């Protein structure tokens, strides 16, 4: 069809008037942005990161993630909900000791210059818990034990002025460190003996030996004397764990592979066994302790909590738990047995309502157990934190 000039003008005008709306909006935006002042653009605000000067207040759980292939870490968790507060770095094969007030952590570890060979430096790092900062470090002889994290290998004297470091080259000895002076003041040979039990008073310490004896070393400056007990346990029939607890009356609590508790007096020149309690007597299933820090003691309740597994055999003394047993020293009676799988280390809070924290070897977590209300001192798992990693030692503060 042929259009007249007037019809052609009308057709073209209609095309201009009815331009699609989205395209018109786009054109209008471009034109508007071209004439908008640059000053109206919102200025760039970079994000600012800050670091808290102190960790959150409240009682803590300290977990020693000792490593062989790289840096170890002392992790800090809140007791109430196991939220993560931070960490304190260390070298390989770390050992940990927490001060009585929970404000200072001592860490012994090694720093290998070339990892697989070459020079190795053994260091004690002293950390302030509130700030997770290193206050000082003390170089110690490169005789310090290279082992997974355990108790009794790094210990404090009663007044917390001296630090005892277990050595093994494999010959055994103990380095005595003056913390304030940052120096080793003595090395005490302890042939055939391993582990440190500091006395409640003074600067003495005792150590269990392969003969079934305990030897007591009394320090006077850089000098020492030694006294040996009689044979206190049978290393073949029923040896003891190095791990120990201290009862509220001052007695040492030593645990045997077979499930007995020795209550020992170390206040004199030699250690004496006061009483032996067979915790698993009359219970079927061949139950025995297993793990590393295999017991935890509540002074409020005068009660020992034990990690136990069934079907025990020669060599199962490091097996993870199946249950936690609560044993009253006052009543000399097993009070409860609570399901608690895969635990290899245990710690307990003080008070009439104890809370248990344990190292779960299978899941590599810290597990929290609280009273369940199902009976006298029956516990149930209440929480776990997957940040923990694998550990064989942990501790709690009692603030």
List keywords for this structure.
transport, 29 strands, 4-stranded antiparallel sheet, Methylamine Dehydrogenase, Chain H, mainly beta, electron transport, TAT_signal
Report on this structure:
This protein has helices at 5-17, 21-35; strands at residues 60-65, 72-78, 84-90, 92-98, 104-112, 120-128, 133-140, 154-156, 162-168, 172-178, 183-189, 197-198, 205-208, 214-220, 223-228, 240-246, 252-256, 260-265, 272-278, 288-289, 295-298, 303-309, 323-328, 333-339, 343-348, 356-360, 365-371, 379-385, 394-396. It is mostly beta strands and 399 residues long. The protein has one domain (60-396): Methylamine Dehydrogenase, Chain H (7 Propeller). The strands form seven sheets. Strands 20, 21, 22, 23 and 24 form a five-stranded antiparallel sheet that branches. The chain has a four-stranded antiparallel sheet with strand order 3-2-1-29, with no helix packed on it. It has a four-stranded antiparallel sheet with strand order 4-5-6-7, with no helix packed on it. The radius of gyration is 32 Å and the shape is globular. Residues 1-36 have low confidence and may be disordered.
